[in-house]
Amino acid sequence: MANPDLLESPETDLAEALDLPWLVVVHNDPVNLMSYVSMVFRRIFGWTRERAEQHMMEVHVKGRSVVWSGGREQAELYVQQLHTYLLLATLEKSS
Amino acid sequence: MIFEINDHGNPLFTGIHPLLVELLRAVAVDPWERCPEGSERLLPSPGEDEDLRLDWEDHVQPELRRHFETERSMVAADLERMTEPMEQDEKVGEEKGASLEIPLGHADAWLTTLNALRLALVGEHRFTEADLSHESFPDLSDARGIALMQVNFYAFIQECLVRCLDGEGGEGDS
Predict the structure, then answer these.
(1) How far apart are CA A78 and CA A3, in angstroms?
(2) Domains of chain A (ranges plus CATH)?
(3) Rg of chain B's alpha carbons, rounded to an integer?
(4) I need a labelling partner for B61 at 20 to 30 A (CA). Which of A21, A80, A85, B53 fits?
(5) What predicted TM-score, i.e. pTM, was given to this entire model?
(6) What are the pLDDT digits (tens) for B50-82?
(7) Which letter does DSSP use for residue A9 in this model?
(8) Is residue B19 part of a domain?
């Protein structure tokens, strides 16, 4: 059954209503070494070397890579960890 | 300069030229002191959300700065133990150069500290990706050229340390 409140409130924040996840995005910079970025990804996210290198290359080639999505609290924690390793990381609301 | 892993499993650099010794000693310098403008990059914004940005400035960034300071102290202590046998090698008539052993457990502190200084130097001198591409030897007659040499030399040390750490607990399943 449709929720009449939602239907009558077009200004409702759709993202909130749908509970869209937060994204952890890593951005390219010319300084961090590719081997270092890959190592950091493996450490923080527990990825295989192959997966870490795929995301590292995406950062290098496309300028950014979404490395995680989910709840805001955990996303903030990941961004903080990435900043500890001096990677350029931001938190974005999924659209 | 020769890089190897010694019998204790620690990264060891030997035959370090006096100029490179000076560059290594500079790693212990506070990047905020050395490159105040470039050091802004060391504490990036977490995103566009204003509340989050303010929260980051109040809570996360001071903690990060303390962390960087602790790591830098560890590196400074290792540098104090760098040996500098400057006597001439009688057989070949060359200086033997200095040697530096980095305890493997300190490798992370070195990576962080080297990275922080490289980022600060790049920010300070506005080096581009092309500048950092090692395509030409930097002009050492000015401060910018020396800074570029520093950035590249520290990258070499970082590569050596990453190789040492590679395979140590970094693997995992997705």
Answers:
(1) 35
(2) 20-93 (3.30.1390.10)
(3) 18
(4) A21
(5) 0.85
(6) 999 999 999 999 999 999 999 999 999 999 999
(7) -
(8) yes
Per the CB < 8 A criterion, the answer to whether B13 and B3 are in contact is yes
Q: Inform me whether the C-beta atom of residue A64 falls under 8 Å from chain B C-beta atoms.
A: no
The DSSP 8-state label assigned to residue A86 in this structure reads T
E-assigned strand segments in chain B: 2-5, 11-16, 88-89, 94-95, 98-101
For B30: left if phi > 0, alpha if psi spans -120 to 50, otherwise beta; the answer is beta
- Tell me the residue range of the domain where B54 lies: 2-85+97-173
How many other C-beta atoms lie within 10 A of the C-beta of residue A57? 14
Q: Is A4 on the interface with B (CB under 8 A)?
A: no
Q: How far is CA B87 from CA B20, B22, B54, in A?
A: 17, 17, 55
The number of beta carbons lying within 10 Å of the beta carbon of residue A60 is: 14
Cα→Cα distances B68→B1, B18, B63, B76, B138, Å: 27, 27, 9, 12, 28
- ipTM higher than the 0.90 cut: no
